[in-house]
């Protein structure tokens, strides 16, 4: 009964979900009662039970994915994300906990399939031994189910007649079919490109001579600015940053983008914003990164007028996508010189990553201006412990953060407290934004153009169960001509976008940016 009625999200895991009549159970009993031979009945019961156990495992995976990513588990695409989940647990709670969790998940999955199969076989034989009584009971249950379905009767707010198992099978099937159809359609879409054939001298001519920095802030979503619990921590930092940047001669404009991902899978947000394509699953990501679709960062490289660099503190293994992004040089977690402690998943504080960027690239004399893609990771869940800002002169190799990390909250403490998670999330966004603002005040020049944006909203428990997918996006520059190019965007002045500021799909950003700064479309087609 529990397996037949189990919902696919933790929020739906309530008593009223289990006070229903499962139509699939009645149908299974009818089939089992109709089988005269014990061996055949055993085989059918075992098969049905194993299938129900496997579906239960998928329901549990749906719960996890809905909890963290705001969507269900995809049978075709999402198996490799389980490795990422284990890595996240390892970074947040230690290798022992990750290993135990992985082994526990495998054992639980096997037990669910085996025990559900055994239980179904046992019930099948019980029904056979009491066939007359079981037949009468099944007939009564079937009549009750039909009556409740026809009359739409409810108990505790839920329809009494349940088709939950059939719905779950249908949902999984629709995802699989949709994914297979989408793969071919998206491959055709990715081969078409509005700016794919644009000559190098016709790409971003209005930014020639400028250092252009495209910075993603992990989990920086609309909830950080509008949620009543989170906003009081974040919005003062944004307003203070607007004022201090104005005193330093900078102006800013801000709007909203609707991200292709939610709660995680940051690389989908990065690739969507920079490719101009809607990359909302792993298959689309593999397709686009293995092709030649022009990214915003590669557009700068294609001109030959910029040096292109990636600052990737979250990358801890090979990253072949660098070529697709057009990044001539990439610094991963091990190449930024950091000797301090990790802050849960984040390999280093954002302040240190920005200082390393200054030391290794931005502060050097060069023949060309710089285009950099920078990923800031301190606001990655579980938001504990959170770094604190230190004097920039004291950053050194990052050892200064050892005491700060040791004094911070533990991931277990924050994850177990929903309200505490929201508060700590707000603090992490404040830290990341303030680090970036201080870096710009300290090292920015008259020719610096900073674009910074969120990659996705935080997990549903923090952003809100009905939150949208919007993230803030901001452009900051000292040269007034830069912001004049985007006047028709109608973005809000300052670092904090207004509630009614324009909202675009994140995949629209590349083309709008290229167009605003003088690029000429030369489409390529499939």
From TrEMBL:
Classification via Gene3D superfamilies: Alkaline Phosphatase, subunit A
Transmembrane residue ranges: 20-36, 43-61, 97-118, 139-161
Keywords: Membrane, Transmembrane, Transmembrane helix
Entry-linked SUPFAM superfamilies: Alkaline phosphatase-like
Keyword Transmembrane helix: yes
InterPro entries recorded: Alkaline_phosphatase_core_sf
Protein name (database record): CDP-alcohol phosphatidyltransferase
Organism: Streptomyces composti
């Amino acid at each position: 009964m529990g397996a037949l009625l189990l919902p696919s999200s933790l929020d739906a895991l309530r008593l009223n979900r289990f006070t229903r009549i499962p139509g699939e159970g009645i149908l299974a009993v009818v089939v089992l009662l109709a089988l005269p031979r014990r061996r055949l009945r055993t085989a059918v019961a075992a098969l049905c039970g194993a299938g129900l156990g496997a579906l239960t495992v998928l329901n549990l995976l749906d719960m996890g994915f809905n909890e963290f990513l705001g969507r269900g588990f995809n049978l075709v695409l999402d198996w490799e994300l389980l490795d990422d989940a284990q890595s996240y647990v390892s970074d947040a709670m230690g290798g022992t906990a990750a290993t135990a969790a992985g082994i526990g998940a495998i054992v639980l999955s096997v037990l669910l399939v085996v025990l559900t199969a055994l239980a179904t076989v046992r019930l099948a034989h019980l029904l056979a031994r009491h066939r007359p009584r079981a037949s009468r009971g099944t007939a009564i249950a079937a009549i009750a189910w039909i009556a409740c379905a026809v009359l739409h009767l409810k108990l505790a707010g839920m329809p009494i007649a349940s088709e939950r198992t059939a719905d779950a099978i249908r949902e999984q099937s629709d995802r699989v079919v949709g994914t297979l159809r989408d793969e071919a359609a998206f491959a055709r879409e990715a081969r078409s490109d509005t700016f794919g054939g644009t000559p190098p001298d016709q790409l971003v001519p209005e930014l020639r001579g400028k250092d252009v920095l495209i910075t993603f802030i992990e989990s920086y979503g609309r909830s950080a600015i509008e949620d009543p619990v989170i906003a009081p921590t974040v919005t003062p930092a944004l307003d203070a940053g607007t004022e201090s940047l104005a005193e330093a001669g900078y102006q800013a404009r801000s709007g909203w983008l609707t991200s292709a991902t939610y709660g995680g899978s940051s690389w989908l947000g990065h690739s969507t914003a920079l490719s101009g394509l809607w990359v909302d699953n792993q298959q689309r990501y593999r397709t686009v990164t293995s092709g030649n679709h022009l990214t915003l960062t590669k557009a700068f490289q294609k001109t030959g007028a910029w040096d292109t660099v990636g600052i990737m503190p979250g990358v801890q293994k090979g990253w072949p996508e660098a070529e697709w992004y057009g990044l001539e040089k990439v610094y991963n977690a091990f190449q930024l010189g950091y000797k301090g402690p990790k802050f849960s998943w984040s390999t280093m504080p954002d302040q240190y990553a920005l200082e390393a960027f200054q030391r290794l690239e931005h502060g050097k004399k060069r023949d060309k201006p710089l285009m950099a893609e920078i990923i800031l990771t301190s606001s990655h869940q579980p938001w504990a412990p959170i770094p604190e800002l230190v004097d920039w002169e004291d950053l050194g190799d990052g050892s200064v953060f050892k005491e700060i990390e040791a004094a911070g909250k533990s991931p277990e403490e924050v994850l177990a407290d929903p309200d505490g998670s929201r508060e700590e999330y707000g603090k992490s966004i404040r830290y990341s934004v303030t680090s970036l603002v201080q870096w710009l005040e300290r090292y920015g020049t008259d020719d610096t153009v900073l674009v910074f944006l969120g990659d996705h909203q935080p997990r549903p428990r923090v952003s809100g169960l009905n939150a949208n997918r919007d993230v803030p996006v901001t452009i900051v520059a000292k040269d007034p001509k830069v912001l004049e190019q985007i006047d028709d965007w109608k973005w809000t002045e300052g670092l904090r976008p207004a509630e009614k500021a324009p909202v675009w799909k994140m995949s629209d950003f590349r083309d709008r940016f290229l167009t605003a700064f003088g690029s000429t479309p030369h489409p390529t087609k499939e």
